Write a sequence for this structure.
């Protein structure tokens, strides 16, 4: 009986959290059109996120592209299809690995920072202080983070695509002995704009998911150091899982 | 500003935090709200400031139910300074966030007013001491020239010298600016020094009230137990 009760309680709690997140998204769209917008603050946050994420994005891209080229070669060489490697590298990166890996890395790098910062502000009464200063705390804390990450993710993915293809090129040409011109021609000829666009749309959705989940966990964290820790962990774990789930459904859409 | 509270109640789930509170915060006077931890003092303060909504009862600000919270300022227990902003940006937050840049002189004057030098203008909260943080937080609360200042445990976490300094500062500023002050404190010395009137809360109810200079002569049993507890703690 207790077992069934615990399943019921967990299910109810799950539904409650989903409801609260949906309400949070509604609040975001409601507040975004309400004064004040704090444009300068939004811009500053966008630049901060952008600059701090570039190194990790670049590393993700280069090593993904390099590994992809090596692994593809291992498989494709078994049935003499090595010439397909440039196509596979560029297609896998733009449609799949670019957005997913960038999403997971950004969730760990930026999502955790967002959740920890907002949760700490909550614990130390800084959010109450914002309210006492007649500041629209939602537009000050949530809007810049959600907008910045949602707008930055397509740029991040574009960077990962380029650097990843460059990584694949380096390994293919200098390690596997491909002809450099052939590699580039195969890459450029094979990729279509819709491949790139599908990755960019995925990234935009992932950026929105990461920022909303991280802000939600930070803003509604429990008090104390434990609350800050839980908020950070939940932000990364939930947004990573949601990225993988939404990735499947978006892939179905662009299939 | 005079603040009158009538039959105010607040519940959090099954927890009845404030029960039928009636009190009057006199204009240009310093009112102290005393009570044990968890008796509802901070909730009351946040309801008056309109940060939390009350379930029942009314609050009248100069006989009106609506108030512009720009007329209020608040000093939080641990300062609640924004870690990512400098001292100047914290103090002039309302100007800073609107993109105004000509607040330097006003901030320097605010720093002087709370006894701090302009050297800390560009420092971050993590680079200054606890006493300095409290004074910066006070400067931030005073920056918009509020009519009422709310002080949540202003001397918590400070050594006796810094506590005394903060008390002196509060008295001086309240008198100079002719403000109404509402202070939550456990510090009886501070209450006696800075307060005109007091209200003693216990289990969400106003148990005792009166003039601060007569606080030690209170005949209320619970108030006396509270005072005795504080004295014992101070002696130990």
């Amino acid at each position: 009986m207790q077992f069934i009760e615990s399943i019921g309680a967990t299910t109810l709690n799950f539904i409650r959290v989903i409801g609260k997140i949906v309400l949070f998204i509604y609040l975001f769209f409601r507040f975004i059109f309400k004064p004040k917008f704090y444009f300068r603050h939004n811009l500053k946050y966008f630049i901060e996120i952008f600059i701090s994420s570039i190194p990790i994005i670049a590393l993700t891209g280069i090593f993904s592209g390099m590994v992809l080229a090596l692994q593809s070669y291992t498989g494709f060489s078994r049935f003499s299809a090595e010439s397909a490697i440039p196509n596979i590298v560029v297609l896998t990166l733009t449609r799949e690995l670019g957005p997913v890996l960038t999403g997971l890395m950004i969730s760990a790098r930026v999502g955790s920072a967002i959740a920890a910062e907002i949760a700490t502000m909550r614990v130390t009464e800084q959010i109450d202080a914002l309210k006492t200063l007649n500041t629209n705390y939602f537009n000050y804390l949530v809007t810049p983070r959600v907008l910045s990450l949602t707008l930055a993710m397509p740029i991040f993915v574009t960077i990962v695509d380029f650097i990843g293809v460059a990584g694949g090129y380096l390994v293919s040409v200098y390690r596997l002995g491909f002809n450099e011109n052939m590699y580039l021609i195969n890459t450029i000829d094979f990729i279509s704009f819709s491949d790139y666009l599908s990755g960019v749309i995925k990234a935009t959705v992932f950026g929105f998911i990461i920022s909303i989940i991280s802000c939600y966990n930070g803003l509604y964290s429990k008090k104390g150091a434990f609350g800050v820790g839980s908020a950070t962990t939940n932000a990364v774990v939930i947004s990573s899982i949601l990225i993988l789930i939404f990735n499947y459904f978006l892939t179905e859409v662009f299939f | 500003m005079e603040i009158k509270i009538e039959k105010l109640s607040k519940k959090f789930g099954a927890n009845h935090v404030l029960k039928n509170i009636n009190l009057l915060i006199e204009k240009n006077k310093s009112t102290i709200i005393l009570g044990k931890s968890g008796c509802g003092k901070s909730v009351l303060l946040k309801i008056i400031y309109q940060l939390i909504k009350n379930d029942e009862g009314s609050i009248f600000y100069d006989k009106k139910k609506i108030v512009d919270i720009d007329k209020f300022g608040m000093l939080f227990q641990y300062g609640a300074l924004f870690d990512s902003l400098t001292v100047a940006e914290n103090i002039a937050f309302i100007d800073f966030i609107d993109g105004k840049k000509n607040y330097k002189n006003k901030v320097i004057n605010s720093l002087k007013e709370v006894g701090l030098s302009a050297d800390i203008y560009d420092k971050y909260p993590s680079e200054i001491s606890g006493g300095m943080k409290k004074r910066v937080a006070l400067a931030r609360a005073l920056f918009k020239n509020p009519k009422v200042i709310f002080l949540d445990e202003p001397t918590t976490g400070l050594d006796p010298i810094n506590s005394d300094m903060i008390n002196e500062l509060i008295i001086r500023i309240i008198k100079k600016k002719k403000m109404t002050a509402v202070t939550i404190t456990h510090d009886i010395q501070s209450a006696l020094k800075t307060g005109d009137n007091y209200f003693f809360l216990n289990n969400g109810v106003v148990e005792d009230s009166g003039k601060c200079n007569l606080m030690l002569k209170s005949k209320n049993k619970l108030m006396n137990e509270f005072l005795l507890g504080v004295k014992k703690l101070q002696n130990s």
